[in-house]
User: Fold this.
Amino acid sequence: MFGPPRRPIPEASQKWLDEAFSWLIMLFGDERTRDRKVLVPHPTDFPIRYDGGVQAALDTLHILAVQMEVNSDDILLDFYEDGKSSLSTGSPFNSFIPLMGYKNLTSSAGLYWGKQEDGKYHIWLEKRNLIDPENMVATLAHEIAHIKLLGEERIEKNNEPLTDLMTIVFGLGIFNANVSFREYKAFNSWGYSSTGYLKQREWGYSLALFARLRGEKDPDWTKYLTRNIRSDFSKSQAYLEQQP
Assistant:
């Protein structure tokens, strides 16, 4: 009870996150990561009218592209509906892309198709995200992270957890952490939804690594974290303070 804080996540998970985070910092620069603005779910960072329309998604994409240092003109955003077994490529030959076997669609609300013949990176967003701004931001941030890693040829093989983790480095981790575990309650039921590839406690630990790098003991942005993530962040921060 009075001993040092316990390891907040399994040792294997901690080892992977420590190494992956260090690699991303080496790749994108520690000074830039320390100085980068952290975006929060507030109109000051997202002065957008989220009315369920496509324009809100396009405006959000532009803000995220600037934050993640990608030219938004190089991105083509399209939309799809949940439950579809295939999507049209938009080619004049009416070809379709089967979704069966594509990455775990229950863990992601978007799709990244890489750079196509038009020279643009193609990203598809599930339509139901148009009425869920937080999930929209998290999904688009994840897909733009694919551009930074796969599209800009920093990695050769797709790595979804690494792609999730990269959103923290670019100051967008609040959104992706929050949607990793969300509770919902109805009159006679309770449940939760999960989006992404890192677990809730892993997000808390990763955000603590981020705060430690930036020398932040009690960062203002943590007030925007959900209660569960904020608790995991605090436990991880206490643990890291005891580590060299």
